Amino acid sequence: MSRLNIFMAPLQGLTEAPFRNALDRHFGGVDAFYSPFVRWEHGGVRRKDVRDLNPETNTVECLVPQIMAGSSEEAGLILAQLEPLGYRDFDLNMGCAYSMVAKKGKGSGILPYPERVRELLQIAERHPALSFSVKMRLGYDSAEECMQLLPVLNEARIRRVTVHARTGRQQYGGACDRESFLRFARECAHPVVYNGDVVTAEDIASLEREMPFLEGVMLGRGLLAAPWLAAEYAGGEVWSETRRTDALRVLHADLFDHYARALEGGERQLLTKMKTFWEYMCPGADRKLHKKIQKAQKVADYTQAVFRLLCERQACF
Question: What is the CB neighbour count within 10 angstroms for residue 239?
């Protein structure tokens, strides 16, 4: 059985260039990283998003910019600003579940409207020299919506379809619907990637057994919680807890040092940024230490709490 490709899912505010670079440097195992979505607003693409995609900022081998648009015209405006950076592979976001996005008919909010999806996918025909993929959900209101989209997707010139096995209304709660995913995947004419609640190596192995047709698996929150997951799968070996914790320690140090230099808002802004990562990292660690990290108002208190958490985590194994 051939190895599944491992893709890193985009998470807004988290999987930016500093995290991608540090994960790749200290853990590895990811075949391609997807950027947080790039959108058109106030007459252009945010400079922050362009900086994040600058090839000089990224050291990972394969980075796929993700576009958030509600029409092929809007997608074309974004492409015009990203193509000069040298990218040739792009992903179209039809999966974002945030209500403020969905209400505008973007992200998963476009899924109930096959004709709007068809029009958005025309971007691939208008740019034949570029490659496009789609990241979507089973639907917005119902998993039946993905089945209604199949004729549209099957006729489109796209490279792959990644499906988060929930609806948009579920956001990240409730169980993934693997039965509906399977039904969709069996009839999809394109390579399919599974996304949703893959948090252990056994989860990946289970998908290999149950769905041998998959092109790959996309990991998001699972890789933030266990950054070694892709590396262990790719290498076929379980890392020792010492190796895991040591790599996590230097990954955290890289992130902290980068944002300490890059952010101009002082300690408060730095701590706010770093605390977002701890909403996901080391979920099984001491809850009291997690709370100390979140309550820290000074860098010294924050770094002491992180140091203790990592030391106690390693000592538990």
Answer: 16
pLDDT, tens digit, 9 for 90 and up, residues 17-57: 999 999 999 999 999 999 999 999 989 999 999 999 999 99
* Distance separating alpha carbons of residues 71 and 58, to the nearest angstrom: 28
Q: At what angle do helices 178-187 and 144-155 cross, to 10 degrees?
A: 20
Rg of the chain in Å (alpha carbons): 20
Gap between the Cα atoms of 31 and 24, Å rounded: 10
Taking CA atoms, 28 is separated from 25, 73, 191, 227, 278, in Å, by: 6, 36, 24, 9, 20
> Is 70 exceeded by the pLDDT of residue 227?
yes
Give the long-range contacts of residues 183-189, CB within 8 A, separation 24 or more: 183/147, 184/138, 184/146, 184/147, 184/150, 185/211, 185/213, 185/214, 186/213, 187/147, 187/150, 187/154, 188/150, 188/153, 188/154, 188/161, 189/153, 189/154
Task: Kindly give, in sequence order, each residue whose CB lies less than 8 Å from that of residue 89, ignoring residues fewer than 6 positions away.
Answer: 64, 130, 131, 132, 133, 159
- pLDDT > 80? residue 181: yes
